[in-house]
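Researcher: We're reviewing a set of sequences before deciding which ones to prioritize for further study. For each one, I'd like a predicted 3D structure that I can look through quickly. This is ABC transmembrane type-1 domain-containing protein. If possible, include the structure in C-alpha cell form so it fits the rest of the review sheet.
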Amino acid sequence: MSAADVFLGRVSDRARRARRLPGAFDATTLAIAAVLIGIVVVPLARVLVRLFWVDGSLTLEPIRRTLAIPDLGKLLLDTFVLVMASALLAFVIGVALAWLNERTNARMGLLTDALPLLPFLLPPVAGAVGWTMLLSPRAGLLNSWIRDFFALFGVDMREGPWTSTPGTG
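Model: Here's the predicted structure for ABC transmembrane type-1 domain-containing protein, in C-alpha cell form for your review sheet.
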C-alpha cells in the first residue's frame, strides 16, 4: 500500500478485513467462552479459597492433615502405577490400531472410525458408574452371568467373582 493510496482513502481488502467490527458470531463466541470460563474458574477458585481460608483465617492445616495420612506414600505409588499402566496399555492399543489402519488394507470399519472418539463421548463418571453396574459383587450383570454359568457345573457363588469396588475384599 503506497502513501498515495492512504492519502486518497483506498484501502486493500486485507486492511479492510483487519479493521472490521465484531459481528454477531464474535459476540456469541465471547459469550459462550465467558460462560464456560465461569463454569470452570468460579468453582475452582471457591475450592482453592476454602482450602486455605478456614474459619475466617488463612491456614495450611488442611494440607498438613492430608500430608499426615499414614498410607499416603502407598496411595500415591498405587495411583502412579495405575496411571502409567493405563497410559502404556492405551499407547500399545492405539499404536496397534493406527498401524493396522494405515499400513495394511485391513479396514475395521466402526472399530477404527468410531472407537477413538469414545472417550470424548463417554464422560468418566458415566464410565465409572457403568463398570460399577457391570461388576458389582452381588448385582453386577457380568458377575450374575458368570455365577449362572458356574451354577451349571454345581458351583454355588453368592458374590463375585469380580468386584468393581477395590479394597473391599
